[in-house]
TrEMBL record:
Keywords: Heme, Iron, Metal-binding, Monooxygenase, Oxidoreductase. The lineage of its organism: Bacteria, Bacillati, Actinomycetota, Actinomycetes, Kitasatosporales. Residues 22-45 are annotated as: Disordered. CDD domains: CYP105-like. It comes from the Bacteria. One of its GO terms (molecular function) is heme binding. This is Cytochrome P450. It comes from Streptomyces acidicola. Belongs to the cytochrome P450 family. PROSITE patterns: CYTOCHROME_P450.
């Protein structure tokens, strides 16, 4: 868990401005960096220095984050000057509507919302349960110990999103490797652009095949819109990349990191294992989302107009960073926030973001996590870490937090 110092951090130390991302190395692997916690209490609206030396606003309180993320005067358009990017970019690896504003964002998002509606997703429960059951059986029949990331955490959401989109799961090595590279901020711009280009070409080829042989899947429905002139082929392929990437990276990290957190909190794990009440399981999922908040590099936005907030004025053109992990530990909203309590009502968390860009796939993510967390530890009651939690390779360098590997035994 060593984090190398960087020049921006050193400069920041000189000027008294904190740098972001912050080091969580010394603290608990599930908690936001200790400095971030202090910042929320001492100076909830401040400036931070990011990798390029710029100093966007830094909003740490839950109420302020929700107010600003829900404000149409705040833009998610990464091509605007002042937008605080999380890593160097050549502007060629922006993926679809997550980095666009309305009305363009809404136009594209609307085309896929039906597939992620709660009712449609709930109908997938038996299929998701079968995927989970089969993978557990396969794992139990294989070597022990095993890496839970490769054997289970990555395959579950990958199989589900492949089924929904109509992507052949046989290609999983290719798309998992490139998706992981695309969000790995320690890679060079060229490496991330190459990963994006490979995924884009792959999705475009797949759409060509769907054009010739349409099926009952989401990519085929996008291809129909291309044929009808509602969408360009490039827009459709970009959307495919976004859905494929977002559909497996985040959930896979929640499955693996959630397992570490539960194994390190046996009282909470026992609570989950001993219930088959769907409401209790759903509540446990919300609490794990709140507590772990895997999208730890912060939401990023730029102000379109002057905005007054918490006694300060954010000027038009100034960047804003929202570390949602710390908003999820705001004592104003969650009692004893650093405590993992599967019985609490955590529904106000911002692990799925807030405002118009709030996670499109949240019903699907919830379903997958509910099925996983209510099945894995019951079916494998002796599941344990095959190494110490402190020694696991945590993902400090990605847009999504988690573990690269998770050796488990039973
Ligand atoms: C536990 C799993 C997940 C977490 C923690 C998560 C988190 C997030 C967050 C924080 C955002 C907001 C980004 C922003 O405001 O800048 C977001 C957006 C998004 N997520 Fe998820 N996500 C998860 C699973 C999924 C799944 C399964 C899909 C399925 C395809 C998905 C698709 C998307 C899409 C398309 C957006 C962009 C929405 C928009 O810009 O309108 N996510 N997600």
């Amino acid at each position: 868990m060593t984090i190398t110092s960087n020049p921006a951090e050193d400069r920041a130390a000189d000027s008294g401005i904190l740098s972001f991302p912050m080091d969580r190395a010394a603290g608990c692997p599930f908690d936001p960096p200790p400095r971030l916690q202090a910042q929320q209490q001492e100076e909830p609206l401040s400036r931070v220095r990011i990798w390029d030396g710029s100093t966007p606003w830094f909003v740490t309180r839950h109420a302020d984050q929700r107010a600003l993320l829900g404000d149409p005067r705040v833009s998610a358009d990464a091509t605007r000057p002042g937008y605080p990017r999380s890593a160097p970019s050549n502007g060629r690896n922006n993926i679809s509507f997550i980095l666009m504003d309305d009305p363009e964002h809404a136009r594209l998002r609307r085309m896929v919302t039906g597939s992620f509606a709660v009712k449609r997703v709930q109908a997938m429960r038996p299929a998701v349960q079968k995927i989970v059951d089969d993978l557990i059986e396969e794992m139990l029949a294989g070597p022990n110990p095993v890496d839970l990331v490769q054997a289970f955490a990555l395959p579950v959401p990958s199989l589900v999103i492949c089924e929904l989109l109509g992507v052949p799961y046989d290609d999983h090595d290719f798309f998992q490797r490139n998706s992981s590279a695309l969000v790995k901020q320690s890679l060079s711009v060229e490496e991330r652009t190459a990963a994006h280009g490979a995924l884009l070409t792959y999705l475009d080829d797949l759409m060509g095949e769907k054009l010739a042989h349409p099926a009952d899947d989401l990519l085929s429905s996008l291809v129909t819109r291309v044929k009808d002139g509602e969408l360009s082929r490039n827009e459709a392929a970009q959307m495919g990349v976004l859905l494929l990437l977002a559909g497996h990276e985040t959930t896979a990290n929640m499955i693996a990191l959630g397992t570490v957190a539960l194994l390190e909190h046996p009282d909470q794990l026992a609570r989950l294992r001993d219930t088959d009440d769907p409401k209790a399981i759903a509540a446990a999922v919300e609490e794990l989302l709140r507590y772990l908040n895997v999208t730890h590099s912060g939401r990023r936005r730029v102000a379109l107009e002057d905005i007054e907030v918490a006694g300060e004025v954010i000027r038009a053109g100034e960047g804003i960073v929202f570390p949602n992990e710390i908003a999820n530990r705001d004592a104003e909203v969650f009692t004893d926030p650093d405590h993992l309590d599967l019985g609490r009502d955590a529904r106000r968390h911002v692990a799925f973001g807030f405002g118009v860009h709030q996670c499109l796939g949240q019903p699907l993510a919830r379903l997958e996590l509910q099925v996983v967390y209510s099945t894995l530890y019951r079916r494998v009651p002796t599941l344990r870490l095959a190494t110490e939690a402190e020694k696991l390779p945590y993902k400090h360098d990605g847009a999504v937090y988690g573990v690269y590997e998770l050796p488990v035994a039973w």
